[in-house]
Amino acid sequence: MTHLLYGLYIINKNNNIVINHRKGELNIVTTKKYMKDYPRPQFVRDNWTNLNGEWNFGFDDDNAGEAAGWHRQFGGDLIINVPFTYETKASGIGEEAHHSNVWYNRSFDVPADEAGKRIVLNFQAVDYDAKVWVNGEYVGCHRGGYVAFSFDITPYITFGAANELTVKVEDSLDATQPRGKQRWVQDNFECFYVQTTGIWQSVWLEAVHPAHVDQVKMTPDFDANAIRFEYQVKGYSASNRLRLETIISLKGQPVKQVGLTIDRPWMQLEVDLVHEANGPWKQTHWAPAHPNLYDVEFVLYENDAVVDHVYSYFGMRKISIEQGKVLLNNTPIYQRLILDQGYWPDSHLTPPSEEAILEDIEKTLEMGYNGVRKHMKVEDARYLYWCDVKGLLVWSEMAATFEFNDNAVQTFTEEWMGVVRQQYNHPSIITWVPFNESWGVANIRKNKRQQQFTEAIYHLTKAYDPNRPVITNDGWEHTVSDILTLHDYAETKEQFMRSYADKDAVVNNSISFNNWKYAFADGYSYKGQPIMMSEFGGIAFKSDKGWGYGNQVATEEGFLERFRRIHEAIKETDYFVGYCYTQITDVQQEVNGLLTEDRKPKVPLELIRQINLS
């Protein structure tokens, strides 16, 4: 039997059995259709080609490549390892200086027997402006560094022969484009790191029938024990007879199979999940203690012949807010989150491997956290897949802009809504965080335009997803927000207890904190929202290599005492319903992680777990 080694796990050739060597247990933890390294694990097809690996590459600092015809005769003289950006060691280049224009080129084959199908070229993420040519012909462009995009390249390719793919990426140091923790000056500073330029997630091909399932939005109704599917199908016409079968199963047992005649490109269907395989209700819903996932297959027929087969999954779970509490499946949940910026030393924002993704999730769980706040980064879909599978809660946060004008409003809005649509189906995501600490809206306390912008983003997000909480301006100066979140890097328990002893004073802007920041922007007030300490800690050991929050500590004992005491303060403040500790790993010059950049624990993880769970 062939196996794939995953650190603590071995996944067998059927991709569905995992052995946990640490506990000696045999667990079914993957979904029915799991393929290692598949870039989009919640919408899986068998027929795909991975285009990661060696590409030709070139810097175009004079922006002369298009005029010189690099899309027809490539002019670059370097080799890069996609999907790692040129700034990283993993790319094979490791050049950290900013270059505004970079080019990629490689050849690819499409088998002759694929003729008659549509060939779709997929990019999971390219930062920032991408232009694409195939065999010298312009295919299209895309703007935005964090959202996946695709092109139907069928008209431009030759089946049964080599084809040339060329990509130009334009990036800038413009602070009005969503950049998150990417620096916009020459050198790193404070908590801002080396920029990310170009292709930084997977590139891949799919061969699909002209009629195929394009998207499916899945919305669980926990209280009704039902699931609503909203289908978008490409290739529909009045002349072809299309039928879509939706096949649902749970732990290998059939649940429901329903058919739908396709008579327009967009349709919806609600399916109840009452069935003999249900058993006790707690055995069928999704929660950290039992992250059950329903498998679902979408099988599209044209004139009774199968023309498309897509595998997916969903979790039955509900996020709600009542009486100042966050509820998961109608039960209050205390959130123990850790801030996770998703950086690695040799590959920066790009996960070096799926094994590395699993290692981060495992260590998070091992330390007693039940969730992560993905900070200033739109994470790889494979990370979200494993959070779905392993029951790790996720706050999904947008990369910030750092100036406010009309361009920033437009670019941020378009990309953020793309993120929400792209990540909507993941049950692990329980909260949306479009803004953080007034970044990009620096004058929000009094500026009406900036306040209205955050309100607009809140309501746009709710229009697409009314079921998850939205935090508008995490940390302070909230406008409309479903949760009131606070950031405070006080070093002692006594400081925390003094600052937060009087809840009314905090929520009514009677006292300030964090350099004269208040809980709400002017004109907004507390409406009974749950309250969380969503950034605190950031303790660093003494080092001349970087910084942490407050005074650095000299010993493991000193670290654990401070860590324990500030956690006690938050837990003893009875109106807090959770917290988020900064942070899981060191990141470049920021050395306040519980783990080093290369994921070595600084203190025994079991001791962190004991404090979290006490």
TrEMBL record:
Report the residue ranges that make up the Glycoside hydrolase family 2 catalytic domain in this protein.
Answer: 321-610
Q: Which Gene3D superfamilies match?
A: Galactose-binding domain-like, Glycosidases, Immunoglobulins
Q: Which InterPro entries has this protein been placed in? A: Beta-gal/glucu_dom_sf (IPR036156), Galactose-bd-like_sf (IPR008979), GH (IPR017853), GH2_Domain-Containing (IPR051913), Glyco_hydro_2_cat (IPR006103), Glyco_hydro_2_N (IPR006104), Ig-like_fold (IPR013783), Ig-like_GH2 (IPR006102)
Q: Which SUPFAM superfamilies match?
A: (Trans)glycosidases, beta-Galactosidase/glucuronidase domain, Galactose-binding domain-like
Q: Which BP terms does GO give this entry? A: carbohydrate metabolic process
Q: Which PANTHER family match?
A: BETA-GALACTOSIDASE, BETA-MANNOSIDASE
Family the UniProt entry places it in: Belongs to the glycosyl hydrolase 2 family.
Enumerate the spans annotated as Glycosyl hydrolases family 2 sugar binding domain.
Answer: 50-204
Keywords, alphabetical: Glycosidase, Hydrolase
Lineage of the organism: Bacteria, Bacillati, Bacillota, Bacilli, Bacillales
What name appears for this protein in its UniProt entry? Glycosyl hydrolase family 2
